[in-house]
Each structure stands twice: as C-alpha cells, then as structure tokens.
Amino acid sequence: MYVVVGVVLLAAFIFYSLNLKNKEHANAFESGVLNLMAPLSGVVAGINRTATGVWSDYVDLVGVRKENKQLRASVKILNSRLLEAGEALLANERLRKLLELKISLHAPTLAASVIGEDGSPWFKTILIDRGTADGLREGMPVVASDGVVGQLVKVTAGSSRVLLLTDHASGIAGIVERSRARGVVKGKGGGRCSLDFTLHGEDVKVGDTIIASGIGGVFPKGLPIGEVTMVKKGEYGIFQTVELRPRVNISRLEEVLVILQDLHD
Amino acid sequence: MTKFIKSAIIVYAALLVQVTVLPAYVTDPFKPNLLIVVIAYLGLREGGWRGALSAFFLGLVADCFSGMYFGLSAFSFLSVHLLLRKVADRLYTDSLYLMLLVVSLATIVNGLIHLVLLLLFSVADGIYATLLADLLPQALVNALAASLLFGIPAFGVREEAR
Q1: Per-residue confidence at A265, pLDDT binned at 50, 70, 90?
Q2: Pick from B18, B68, B70: which is nearest to A119 by CB?
Q3: Which of A9, A38, A73, B100 has its CA 20 to 30 Å from the CA of residue A145?
Q4: Which chain A residues are closer than 8 Å to B65 by Cβ?
Q5: Confidence tier at A56 by pLDDT (50, 70, 90)
C-alpha cells in the first residue's frame, strides 16, 4: 500500500518536474481549460462591474427614498440614467488615458479587458480576454495608462495570463529616471516591488521614478514602472536596498494594452 | 454519470467565483480558495483511485489559473488528498466543526508543500515571506467559506447534535 502511494506521489512529482522547463508556455491541457473558461469569465466579469456600479450608486439615495415616497419611481429612473452616464464617464476616462498611451507608443498595440485574477494569494497573475487569435504571443509586454503591468505568459486562443510585475518570478530591467542608476525591478508580492542589484554608490532617493531601461528588449525604454518608497544603504555591501510602489494600481485594473511588436525583432 | 456532471458543474462554478467574482470584492489573502474546500471534502468522503485522480485533475485545473508552475497544485492537492484518506477512517466526518478544522489544516499543508517545491525548484526568491504571511489568513478564510458551503444539505455535513 505504501509502495503504491509512494509510486503515485513520485509519478506526480516527476510530472511536475518535467513541466518546469516549459513553465512559460501553455500546454494542451492548460489551453483547453483556459479556452473553456475564458468566455464565461468575460461575461461574469461584465455582470460584476454592472452590479458594483448599481450598489454604489444606490447607497447615497437610501435617505432620499425614505424621505419622499412619491419621488421613488422617478428617482429609480434617474438613478439608472445616472448609473449609465457615470459608468460611461469612468470608462471614457480610462480608455482616453489608454488611447493617449497607445498613440505615444511607437508600436502596434491591442487593448484587452481583465477578466480574472490568480487563484492563489501568493502568485500574482491576471487573465485577459485576448489570445493567439488576436496575434498575442508569450513574452509580449503589457502596459496600462499609468505604466508597466507585466508580461504575457501562457497564451491560448482566446485568453492569456499576464505575469504581473509584483509577482516574485517577475524581473524587469529598470533605471532611476533622475540619476540613471540601473537595477532590476523584482516583484515582492503584496503590491510591492524592489529594485535589486543597484550599486551601493548610486544616487537613489525616496520619491524617484523608476522607468524601464529597454535592456532585454521587452519593455520600451521610458515606460514608468514605479516610485521609490524606501532606500537603505548598509555600511558594507555591494548593493543598496530599494523598495518601490508600482505606478499602476494592480487591484483596480480593468483594461490593459498589449504591445504587439516583439522588441527582440 | 449524474454525480459526475453535478460535481463538474460545482467545480466549474467554484472556479469561476474564485477567479472572476471574488477578486472584485475581496483582496488577497482574504480571498478563499474554494478548490481546497472541495479537496478536503473529497479527501474525507471519496476514496480509491477515483478520489486521487479527481484531486490530481483539480490540481491541474487550479494550475491553469494560478502561477506559472504547471503540476505544482496537482502534486500538492494529490498529497493532501492521500494524507486525508489515511486518517479519514479515524475521523467523524459528519461533524461540521471537524470538517472546518480539516479544511484549515489542508490549506496550511497545501501552502507548505508549495513553499518547499518553490524554494527548491523556482526562481521566485523571497516568496517564502509572502506565502508564510498569507497561510493563516487563508486557512481561516477557507474555513469560513467551508462553513457556508457545508451548510448546504447537498454536502451532507451537519453539526453534532448536543
């Protein structure tokens, strides 16, 4: 019995080990599952957004409803119109910023909606509603109006997963905009990042903006990544400790831009 | 066949809620992992090769929406399932409180397995800090989610009669 259990666990372990080499590529199983889930995820995400808007717009009017029975019907009608207008305004603002970014980037881009998030709290990925059918490939950079979001991993026909810059496996070459000090932006989970491998003598201050350096050919040079929140220089050591807060509010992402041009070309 | 279809619908719905609905209202690490609740239930109620295969398959599905390491949750879910099968005979599985405790412990064991495998085989430096900090809140939130789910008569778990 123990032998059987041991063999079964060993087989599962070997299966996991064999897949480590191809962890950035979606295999047939993953493609199948994501293709099955993506359409419904998109629909549910849309319903979610509408439900959230209705709830937040009705809270303010509870007192009015109580005060005046006669105006309840007209208030309901006005509320629904306000809700539609409010949502359209917010969407307009978000998409206008995204369009400004799209124009400023000298590369073809594709807008995508966020339809899901990672199922585990210690990994940071999101699911978007575009895939290989729209010309996406693994490794393409993903940005938002405020700055860098992450990189595509696991692309299937109709959806893709984005490895966020706050994930522990993420690494983006960055420089300090003011002093041009170089480093690598690594994810630390919990909405934080750090700028690693910045030499001890480099000039980095709290409040400095970190931008993409373009090294590695993934992210266009100059894209904002985040703002420095903590700098610690020990008495000894080659590198200093720099923590930064991403420019993009990951928890409020609804639309992103995928830069289609592979900068390795 | 009906049972299989019912189970597939439950898993599909749980996954949809976990990946699409809950992130809009709940932030990490207070977002429950509904698949762990299903694994704990399977571990105590469904034995044999069918239960093990279901746990492995659920782990693969979880890996499709979590992280970059395909096979990680499959291995951890299978391990948790086999561990629960070992002790299932000694537990009073009709007790709701015991099920909640099992869900919490299953969450912690699953997290620790992830931690060991990630430290050994991944380039995610420093993930131990995030993972360990999130383990206890996850265990508590999963127990809360389980208390709501197991309250449904279909799951056949009831509170002990006093």
Answers
A1: very low
A2: B18
A3: A38
A4: 34, 37, 116, 118-119, 127, 161
A5: low
